[in-house]
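User: Could you go from structure to sequence for me? I need the amino acid at each position, not a summary. Structure tokens:
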């Protein structure tokens, strides 16, 4: 079983840096910048909004990464809190582009963010010549300030135009997509390995159109770090969660973990190991207009590769021998 450890208070604060910075940039900075337009500080806001509109297309054209942001010491403290690590099973050649499936979503996707959007686990040294991106909701990049922060970390829009750009400009690009999407967050519970994948085939079609290799990954421990309250589909709370998603693009999950004091309940994640295993790339031919039969064929091969990756490493990273990977 995965072992529990008690992190120090500083690490506990740093692990909240990712969700708290997101919330602050999402809920506070945009209205504050609008308010400043009606004060003596209006030139600052006016200059930013001018830049914001001039820079509108950047998220769909490769973004704007910052090595400085990706190397913040906050990410190493976040890494050490769990801890988070990455395991390479095969080299990735810089001569190709890759479309990577990130599984599972979990509540906060700590493994995907730390491993592919920071240098805390040494991605650039483990995969030399490869530039990693992690795709997220497109409309996040229309929010002032939040968009700049996300781009600096190496996140990109999950829009078709953004992914097409990265897979068609140069080589050595690795674009990660959380294939299960936000719907998979509602399935995140300890001791569960259920993925929403069977009907999600668009990423395979995109990979075929660019001749990009598919890379399966599985993050062990991602669903172990929070407990979640699940509601029946006929309940008012579940209906509220669905309406919330229709408005904001993601679910309002009711989750809990540990508090700052040992044995207490709070919003800190449980400090359990998170390990992202990066599988062997699956080469795909380049087909401008792949038929549904071809898409189905390579989607089946991808699911098989992911299933094998999970089975090969599950007992090493906290799952029982009888644990099954389920596809919905």
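Assistant: Here is the amino acid at each position, in order:
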């Amino acid at each position: 079983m995965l072992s529990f450890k008690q992190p120090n208070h500083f690490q506990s604060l740093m692990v909240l840096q990712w969700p708290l910075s997101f919330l602050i940039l999402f809920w506070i900075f945009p209205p504050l910048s609008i308010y400043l337009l009606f004060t003596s500080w209006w030139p600052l806001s006016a200059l930013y909004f001018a830049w914001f509109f001039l820079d509108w297309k950047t998220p769909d054209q490769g973004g704007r990464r910052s090595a400085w942001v990706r190397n913040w010491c906050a990410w190493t403290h976040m890494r050490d809190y769990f801890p988070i690590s990455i395991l390479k099973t095969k080299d990735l050649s810089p001569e190709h582009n890759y479309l990577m499936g990130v599984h599972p979503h979990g509540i906060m996707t700590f493994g995907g963010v730390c491993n592919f959007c920071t240098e805390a686990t040494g991605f650039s040294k483990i995969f030399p010549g490869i530039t990693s991106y992690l795709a997220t909701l497109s409309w996040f990049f229309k929010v002032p300030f939040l968009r700049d922060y996300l781009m600096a970390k190496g996140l990109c829009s999950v829009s078709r135009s953004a992914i097409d750009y990265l897979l068609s400009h140069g080589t050595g690009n690795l674009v990660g997509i959380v294939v299960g999407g936000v719907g998979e967050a509602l399935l995140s519970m300890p001791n569960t390995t259920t993925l929403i994948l069977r009907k999600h085939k668009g990423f395979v079609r995109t990979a075929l159109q660019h001749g990009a290799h598919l890379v399966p990954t599985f993050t062990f421990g991602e669903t172990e770090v929070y407990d979640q309250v699940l509601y029946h589909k006929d309940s008012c709370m579940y209906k509220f969660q669905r309406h919330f998603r229709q408005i904001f693009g993601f679910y309002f999950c009711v989750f809990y973990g540990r508090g700052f004091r040992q044995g207490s309940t709070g919003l800190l994640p449980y400090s359990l190991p998170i390990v992202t295993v990066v599988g062997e790339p699956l080469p795909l031919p380049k087909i401008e207009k792949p038929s549904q039969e071809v898409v189905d064929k390579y989607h089946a091969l991808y699911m098989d590769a992911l299933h094998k990756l999970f089975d090969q490493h599950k007992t090493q990273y906290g799952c029982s021998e009888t644990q099954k990977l389920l596809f919905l």
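One structural detail worth keeping in mind: The first helix runs from residue 9 to 15.
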